[in-house]
């Protein structure tokens, strides 16, 4: 994340991405690297969306270059596994739901956050 602290707040991250001090791709890579390095001990994430997050970050970087990035550009976030993520089974923390069909679309919260430029990196 170059100029950012590892646990910078959303405002600092978005400002850095908007000004070019950091890219959304670098922010997301750093966040995903932290998850990969610490989740086995912490067990906070039930699902990490590596490919999706990297693709969304690249799109945010393109939006920054075009001058159309949202106010939360590059801010990584995760949602409780009660929220639908398109193509993913919404587990709700239960084994009972593991064979349910995957969600047809993202939950409204995820759609709104990503429309503002934030990037969902996984489910908790």
3D structure, described in words:
It contains four helices and three strands, in the order H-H-E-H-E-H-E. It is mainly alpha-helical and 124 residues long. Strand 2, helix 4 and strand 3 form a beta-alpha-beta unit. Helix 2 packs antiparallel against helix 3. The chain starts with 9 loop residues before the first helix and ends with a strand.
Quick overview:
Helices cover 44% and strands 9% of the residues.
Attribute tags:
single chain; 124 residues; 4 helices; 3 strands; globular
Please outline the helices and strands.
Blueprint lengths: L9 H10 L4 H19 L4 E2 L1 H17 L9 E4 L28 H8 L3 E5 L1
Parallel strand pairs: 2-3
Antiparallel strand pairs: 1-3
Number of strands: 3
Q: Counting H and I runs of at least 4 residues, what is the number of helices?
A: 4
- The helix fraction, in percent, is 40-55%
What order do the helices and strands follow? HHEHEHE
Overall structural class, as computed from helix and strand content, comes to mainly alpha
